[in-house]
Amino acid sequence: MSSSCSLVCLLVSLGLVLVFGACVPENLAQTHESITDVLKLKEPEVGKRPLFGSVIKSINTSCQRKEQVQLMNRTLDIYAHIFSSILQHNQHQTHDNNGSPALLEHLSENSRSQVQMDLMKLQQKMENLKRRLNRLHHQQPNYEDVLSQLNKIKVDDALDQRKALAEFNEVYQAACVITSHHCGSSH
């Protein structure tokens, strides 16, 4: 089953690249790859039931729907909270609000420092993208079901954090498609 999950994840990733083109900068992909093994983002439990699958599916390549911008904006908000939670937990406590160990707790000091720097780079890229996205749209959400699912994501939960980090490139890619020149000007 884990090989089929991996195959599905690979096919989805390849499909996004083929459909959307290469929007994720190489250095961002390398930064993400550097934390993938350390944080065990390829484990089957992380690949099951993606957190943002419904958001990515809702993004069509024509970029004509304003709801897509709203969904991506909310998705990036959740990432901002996840990044903050991971980085704050590492500095202030070793367990999250649910009593689970903090995500970076098991890492050596050197690995933890490198992962923190990589997470800060990912966070900065995401924040820059979110600023561009915010300029595109400011209406009330129409995708209530998907927004409801996004609101149920537990940003302090280590498994949800790992799932979100595993899906980062796909979410970044989808947001990039929305903010690209042909998408931003169609609104």
Automatic annotation (TrEMBL):
Signal peptide: 1-21
Compartment(s) of residence: Secreted
GO biological process, one term: immune response
A Gene Ontology molecular function term of the record: cytokine activity
Source domain of life: Eukaryota
Primary localisation category: secreted
Keyword Amino-acid biosynthesis: no
Keywords: Coiled coil, Cytokine, Glycoprotein, Secreted, Signal
Coiled coil, from the record: 112-139
GO cellular component terms listed in the entry, alphabetical order: extracellular space
PANTHER family from the UniProt entry: INTERFERON GAMMA
UniProt record similarity statement: Belongs to the type II (or gamma) interferon family.
Protein name in the entry: Interferon gamma
Organism per entry: Channa striata (Snakehead murrel)
